From TrEMBL:
InterPro entries: AA-permease/SLC12A_dom (IPR004841), Amino_acid_permease_CS (IPR004840). Residues 1-23 are annotated as: Disordered. Residues 1-11 have a biased composition (Polar residues). Residues 33-467 form the Amino acid permease/ SLC12A domain. It is a multi-pass membrane protein. The keyword Repressor does not apply. This is Amino acid permease. It comes from Streptomyces olivaceiscleroticus. Pfam families: AA_permease (PF00324). Its main location: membrane. It is found in: Cell membrane. The chain crosses the membrane at residues 35-54, 60-79, 99-118, 138-162, 174-195, 215-239, 260-280, 286-312, 347-367, 373-397, 418-438, 444-463. Keywords: Amino-acid transport, Cell membrane, Membrane, Transmembrane, Transmembrane helix, Transport. It comes from the Bacteria.
Length: 483
């Protein structure tokens, strides 16, 4: 089968990889896609979660981030190979449907939708918590409600406005990290500030060594590190609305190594050289601790503003992706037909509205249990997010095998080292899942997985009994309805 035949089969009709049958408007340019890719890799997992990881592993957390970062790069290159084969908005469930079967496509679409609903609840809850730093008189649930409604309004206007907001959210995070690195380098090399006398790169190994908690301590932080990278795959969901996906997406994916190197590894090296790892506590941001040690009184406020934007960025991305996942499911007969509707601006407003309604459950949780809300919803996000990575890797392996046999055209953006790198990434994810089962703090997420799998199985059988033809074809159906 030639490339032209495949493109025609799936509705891809131009050189840029447009998919007009999806009905979306390609309003995301290179600048916005690049920042969405960067923002997806920088979130509260770094600004807040790194503190817990450091307290558990010491300086060796740098190695953990480097190894996981390499695995993430393998995953993103596998996704890139699939995106250049067929750039579509519902990428994960579309590829699962085509290469792994209709049931896997069904499970992946709904699981990724649930992932972002849960993540949206988590991040809105976190954002409401951060606001308490400045205005503790405002109830947490009120702040959560305001943020949810405001972001929903933005997602109803245009995809370009969504991209612009993500651009500036990401710019805040990038600027903060680069500023921290430059200030930290100045403290280490020039010796100014309150931390100047003790700051040194030797802090990376002088207090108990590079592995003060042993190799086992480092391994037990891998699930924390993996959580920090969740949503990096969001760039794949933008494929249906990128102005030139076959040019823009490879550029965004290829920046993953230097993004991880600078924003994660670089910032951690500097922070752990300014402040000894023994000074960090699990519930305090390492950035706040570093600013405090340097003696910048505004440091805590700056970091709080940055993590607020990181949380809002993630919630904004959740609203964007959930509507598109519901529409992809509906277009393939695996969700209510009402979700196929697109607004005049090419937005899946009904799917987004229902998803936001689910996120409003988070407002109720904030009202009922303001002190425990974040912990109630965060555990399931990790395992459901990693499911998308597993599906990407399995789909890429199946696609590569078919392409090598001449059944499908070769991708213009092959993953280097595949299939070996993809197999390694799958094995690594499996090891992390085992670690999650061992750690009592994360074990709860594995309890929810079988329940969700049972729900998916029942839903699949119910839909198949109602209409056996729904799962007969792997290609997307054109049921677009514009208003």
């Amino acid at each position: 089968m030639t490339s032209a035949q495949v493109d025609n089969q799936h509705g891809v009709t131009d050189a840029e990889g447009s998919a007009p049958e999806e009905g979306y408007q390609r309003g995301l340019g290179n600048r916005q896609i690049q920042m969405i890719a960067i923002g997806g890799a920088i979130g509260t997992g770094l600004f807040l979660g790194a503190g817990k990881a450091i307290s558990k592993a010491g300086p060796s957390i740098i190695l953990a981030y480097a190894i996981v970062g390499l695995v993430i790069f393998f995953i993103m290159r596998a996704l890139g190979e699939l995106l250049m084969y067929r750039p579509v908005s519902g990428s994960f469930s579309e590829y699962a449907r085509e290469f792994l079967g209709p049931f896997m496509g069904f499970v992946t679409g709904w699981t990724y939708w649930l992932f972002w609903v849960v993540t949206g609840i988590t991040e809105v809850t976190a954002a409401a918590t951060y606001v308490q730093y400045w205005t503790d008189g405002i109830p947490q649930w009120v702040a959560a409600l305001v943020f949810t409604v405001a972001l929903f309004g933005i997602n109803l206007i245009s995809v370009k406005l969504f991209g612009e907001l993500e651009f500036w959210f990401s710019m805040v995070k990038v600027t903060a990290i680069i500023g921290m690195i430059l200030i930290g380098l100045g403290v280490i090399t020039l010796g100014f500030s309150d931390a100047g006398d003790t700051a040194s790169f030797s802090l990376l190994w002088s207090d108990g060594g590079f592995f003060p908690k042993g190799i086992g301590g480092t391994l037990m932080t891998l699930q924390i590190v993996m959580f920090a990278f969740l949503a990096v795959e969001l760039v794949g969901v933008t494929a249906g609305e990128a102005t030139n996906p076959k040019k823009v997406l490879p550029k965004a994916i290829n920046t993953v190594p230097w993004r991880i190197g600078l924003f994660y590894i670089g910032s951690l090296i500097i922070i752990l050289s300014v402040v000894s790892w023994t000074a960090f506590t699990p519930n305090v941001s390492p950035f706040v601790a570093a600013f405090a040690k340097i003696g910048l009184p505004a440091g805590a406020g700056i970091v709080n503003f940055v993590v607020l934007t990181a949380a809002l960025s993630s919630a904004n991305s959740g609203m964007y992706s959930t509507g598109r996942m519901l529409r992809d499911l509906a277009r393939n007969g695996q969700g209510p037909k009402i979700f196929t509707y697109l607004s005049k601006n090419g937005l899946p407003t009904r799917g987004t509205a229902v998803s936001v309604a689910m996120m409003l459950v988070g407002v109720w949780i904030n009202y009922q249990w303001p002190g425990e809300a974040f912990n109630y919803v965060v555990s399931f996000a990790t395992i459901s997010g990693m499911w998308a990575w597993i599906v990407i890797l399995l789909s890429q392996l199946r696609y590569r095998a078919k392409a090598n046999r001449g059944e499908l055209p070769q991708s213009e953006f092959k993953a280097p080292g595949a299939p070996y790198t993809s197999v390694f990434a799958l094995a690594f994810i499996a090891m992390v899942i085992v670690m999650m089962g061992i750690d009592p703090d994360t074990r709860i997420s594995l309890y929810a997985a079988p329940v969700w799998a049972a729900i998916m199985g029942i839903g699949y059988l119910a839909i198949k009994r109602r209409d056996p033809n729904v799962f007969a074809n792997s290609g997307p159906a054109d049921t677009t309805k514009k208003g």
